[in-house]
Amino acid sequence: MKEAVIDRRRLREVMEREATRFLDEHSRSRELFERARGSLLSGVPMHWMTEWAGAYPVFVQEARGARFVDVDGHEYVDFCLGDTGAMAGHSPPAVADAVGKQVRRGITVMLPSEDAVWCGEELTRRFGLPSWQFALTATDANRFTIRLAREITSRPKVLVHAWCYHGSVDETFVVLEEGALRLRPHTIGAPVEPAITTRAVEINDVDGLERELAQGDVACVLIEPALTNIGIVLPEPGYHEALRDLTKRHGTLLVIDETHTICAGPGGYTRAYDLEPDFLTIGKTIGGGIPAAAYGFSESVRDRILAAMPPQTDVGGIGGTLAGNVLSLAAIRATLGDVLAEEAFSRMISLGERFEAGVAGVIAEHALPWSVTRLGCRVEYWPRPERARTGAEAAGAADAELDRFLHLFALNRGVLMTPFHNMALMCPDTTDSDVDRHTEVFAEAVSTLTG
């Protein structure tokens, strides 16, 4: 079969039609957006919300499970799930009940609760690290971990994968261009030159790891075990074994950020593939949508931290007044204990497989030079014939015009995808019919462009 080619003129024509349909069907959202522009920057409470494909974001009225309803009365199957923040589903009953009860008993007291003990023990069971601390975001968990790594190694630098994502951590907004370290495009107000704080390699570049770690100034390697925010880029066989060997050989600590890769299973990629990090960080979904994050340490790292910890830590750059608050811990306990349990992941991953197969079938039927990649219950498709091996390859395949059309076409038919790329995530409430609905809409979008 002859390989399909996207007709760009037709793409623009149908995009204009979809944009008109969006305006016609979302008048109440438009009213609220216009009103919001009077008090909110760009008409939204957080500027990422401007990146949806319509002329303005839809305003949400209610969200439950794997679906939400907007203020114009349209219901959507949600595969974005708050960009992982709602991976447990929207307002899971167990979390809603636990949070409601805790709100009446106290929200924050800067003292521990019994839930804190349970959460630490559960995180140890899932990820294998014996000691934990809590924060409100994965960004904070990563920042605190970097500070601790620098303290106990007396080294200044962090090594990351190019095109990585670790929240708004200053040291991590880097890419490689012809081997040179550069700020990631669109970085806002970078405080220092990245070469002062950071080294970077492409994922799967073992030679690059060896070269950069040999400099002897890297306190920690901070990585997602698979890239997820420039497209899903999986590690090649043997990569993690080489990484762990090199970090040990060069006295560098290994930090695994599981905030997105928890989609690989109940213990994240770390447990699924028997990784042995010195630190592990995780945020977003562990609180069922309530702000919560955690960072854990191996036994040897814990002992080094305790030996180095100054007597006064409240102004030491680690922690926070609301970190480890009793409301967040109640939410974590309910989420990990009652929602994102072992059996939930088994079903979610099965749904991810179904989603992947549906997309692959459409790609094959239309002879598209595209590919689809899955990591547990997270799936993404890209307009390139082979899976990306590095972040740079994934970035090079980005097609903003095509992505915007696919997102708006799906939105107009009641399917919400992650706005930044063609990524879908399953939650415990996602159904076979939800997945099949996406496959139908995706096939219709492709037929519209190629038929």
Q: Could you describe the largest sheet, including whether it forms a barrel?
A: 7 strands, mixed
Strand order in the largest sheet: 4-12-11-10-9-5-8
* Count, helices: 15
Share of β-strand residues: 15-25%
Low-confidence stretches: none
- CATH architecture classification name of the largest domain: 3-Layer(aba) Sandwich
Tell me the Rg in angstroms. Answer: 22 Å
CATH topology of the largest domain: Aspartate Aminotransferase, domain 2
- Shape, principal axes of CA atoms: globular
Proportion in helices: 40-55%
- Overall pLDDT level: 96
The CATH class designation of the largest domain is Alpha Beta
Count every beta strand, where a strand is a DSSP E run of 2 or more residues: 16
Which structural class is indicated by helix and strand composition? alpha/beta
